[in-house]
Amino acid sequence: MSREPRASRSERTGNEVTRELRTDGGEQLAATDSNIEAAIRENHPALITYITAGDPSLEDTRAYVEALDRGGADLIELGLPFSEPTAEGPTIQAAINRALAAGTTPAQFFDLVDDLSTEAPLLVMTYYNMILQYGPSEAARTSKAGAAKPQNKPDVRPFVERAADAGLSGIIVPDLPAEEAGPLRDACDDRDIDLVFIVAPTTEGERLDRIMSQVSGFAYVQARLGTTGARADVSNATHDSLTRLAGYDVPKAVGFGVSEGDHAAEIVAAGADGVIVGSALVDIIADHGAGDAPAAAELEAKARELKRGARRGREEAPEPEQP
Amino acid sequence: MSNTESDHADASADRTDRERTFGDYGGQYVPEALMPALQELEDAYERYVLENEDGFMDEFSERMRDFGGRPTPLQRADRLSERYDREIYLKREDLVHGGAHKLNNALGQVLLAKYMGKERIIAETGAGQHGTATAMAAAHLDMPCEIYMGRTDVNRQRPNVYRMRMNGAAVNPVEAGSGTLKEAINETLRDWATTVENTHYVIGSVVGPHPFPRLVRDFQSVIGAEAREQIREQAGRLPDSVVACAGGGSNTMGAFHEFVPDESVDLYAVEAGGSSLDIDEAAGVAPNSATLSTGTDGVLHGALTKLLQTDDGQIVESHSVSAGLDYAGVGPELSRLVETGRVTPTSVGDDAALNGFHRLSNLEGIIPALESSHALGCVEANHEELGDLVVVNVSGRGDKDLETVLEETEKRDLDAAPDVEVFDA
């Protein structure tokens, strides 16, 4: 197994490492990288993988995460399933349905993350309602006919606190645009968790500036309009988006439709700092039942193929970024 | 429609119409890819709807008159008035073209899409009422149209599927989940996220991200604007109460909006109580759609509003005998009006709604939609609290519900029902 050495999640103190940042004037400034930024810069070009937690069971998720970590994933996104995944295509919708059918809850999800020790930092990807509803005040929100309901206003903080305590390094919320992200942005800042925003092919001008001023960790570049799902090619929108983003000093990772090593190579060659792969991995999981060992081996092999593709792309990239 | 222009002059003076929220409710919780389209829609809403640019609202009103059959009557219900010993007036939205208030919004949005230069219309539909209204409007205005409809609804609402296809719309069955309205909305949002650059999503109720709740409300507010003028003319004063059913809440907000500043007028939003008001957390099922009465705050389909959900935040499957009320969310403005106490939420179960259906059919010669039957069920149960002069919104006609009503009536012992077993004799 050949992989570049990486600082592991457990070896870091806190969630930040210091790096030297060279500005245009040649002046040396101390800046801090989050775990996520460090993982991308140190392992450039980065492979970011997504699977849905609890698909088909949380025990399987543990094995899959470890396999992806071994296979060279530099960041691992875990989907916390929500019943109305409006940003997902059929593959990840089905994964979320399997996870919900298995009874996956936020509490169990965090218990799993507590137990995981991967080299790759972990992120949670979920919909905003799951973040709003998480909290200890179950009794306060239980709805019963005729009973007085002491309604607590939903709050993002309990989720962020729990995520930080579990060692998660970042949060991605596909239905939370920058305009609505204030409360979550503040809560994440307080616990040094990165809040990753998605940049769409339709994002430009002032909106792009607003998002890039709020983003941390990396900018999730949506490769094409539409929903998640493996595709057979790399869209022109990817190249256009990377061109629009070239001036921002934030790592850029491209997702939505990336399924093969060759895609990874092309995307990195076009200037991306990383590639995000979800549906192609979920397809592998869908082909196997619960407790099926070959699934983990196939995931590990797929991660290697994608990482190799990304490295190949770096050779072709116009201006490779140095870690 | 005579006062539409002045209403909109008032609205454009009201800066709150441009805010993204109603108190804490509302907002824009959507994928980033849709945000530019929402901003484009906001801009079009302000220019064409609020400011009547290029005579948009004039054209809308003309088309609603000539194509849609507006204004609709406000009719005194003589036998109901006698039964309840007070004046009961019915706002006859069942007489709008297509048989429901849904056309008010569908025609408004399809026309707006045309003004915006969009080339394609998509919409979700539950029972098929919004889908048929959108298909009619799209045919009328020569726009290609695709409707997403859950598989369960496609199977149980065949006549509406045929109506949409007759009007030239494509109907796309959605296989996911329970195959009802919620899944249809999810799939329409996915289509829109892919085709947003040339497509307008005609959302069917006062739900979704800003500016949809305001936009749909404004197109529907003609109901209350007409009713307010009509009741003053016919009864000489404002009503003591206005009663409307509430699912997503478009006929509700349409009926209420013009009355909100009239503090002497009580506003009752009647939800579907289904068979019980309890949520079965383990099964993820609510045997009702009483979101305003029993729901909790959360985010669904682009807005913060009241929802039927589990403690973890999973949306539960709602239920009502009336497909048009069967939704786990509700418009954010209604959530706000309930929070401030301006609107009183109440609920009526399946049995009372069915009785309401039979009573109006029998006493007044009007077969109401099962949705509207909830408002009538509320009048039966609570008439003593409604004051001396009551306006009830009959949001649609019940021809579409006959099969369901016969089936559900046979299962029950309903005091207002005729003997349906002899219908086939």
UniProtKB/TrEMBL annotation, chain A:
Belongs to the TrpA family. Residues 1-25, 304-317 have a biased composition (Basic and acidic residues). InterPro entries: Aldolase_TIM, RibuloseP-bd_barrel, Trp_synthase_suA. The gene is trpA. It catalyses: (1S,2R)-1-C-(indol-3-yl)glycerol 3-phosphate + L-serine = D-glyceraldehyde 3-phosphate + L-tryptophan + H2O. The alpha subunit is responsible for the aldol cleavage of indoleglycerol phosphate to indole and glyceraldehyde 3-phosphate. One of its GO terms (cellular component) is cytosol. This is Tryptophan synthase alpha chain. Coiled coil: none annotated. Tetramer of two alpha and two beta chains. It comes from Natrialba asiatica (strain ATCC 700177 / DSM 12278 / JCM 9576 / FERM P-10747 / NBRC 102637 / 172P1). Its EC number is 4.2.1.20. Pfam families: Trp_syntA. Keywords: Amino-acid biosynthesis, Aromatic amino acid biosynthesis, Lyase, Tryptophan biosynthesis. The active site is at E77, E88. Residues 1-26, 304-323 are annotated as: Disordered. GO terms for molecular function: tryptophan synthase activity. Pathway: Amino-acid biosynthesis; L-tryptophan biosynthesis; L-tryptophan from chorismate: step 5/5. NCBIfam families: trpA.
Automatic annotation (TrEMBL), chain B:
Pathway: Amino-acid biosynthesis; L-tryptophan biosynthesis; L-tryptophan from chorismate: step 5/5. One of its GO terms (cellular component) is cytoplasm. It comes from the Archaea. Residues 68-396 form the Tryptophan synthase beta chain-like PALP domain. It catalyses: (1S,2R)-1-C-(indol-3-yl)glycerol 3-phosphate + L-serine = D-glyceraldehyde 3-phosphate + L-tryptophan + H2O. The keyword Amino-acid biosynthesis applies. Residues 1-23 are annotated as: Disordered. Its cofactor is pyridoxal 5'-phosphate. One of its GO terms (molecular function) is tryptophan synthase activity. Residues 1-22 have a biased composition (Basic and acidic residues). Its EC number is 4.2.1.20. The modification N6-(pyridoxal phosphate)lysine is found at K102. SUPFAM superfamilies: Tryptophan synthase beta subunit-like PLP-dependent enzymes. Keywords: Amino-acid biosynthesis, Aromatic amino acid biosynthesis, Lyase, Pyridoxal phosphate, Tryptophan biosynthesis. The beta subunit is responsible for the synthesis of L-tryptophan from indole and L-serine. NCBIfam families: trpB (TIGR00263). Belongs to the TrpB family. Tetramer of two alpha and two beta chains. This is Tryptophan synthase beta chain. The gene is trpB.
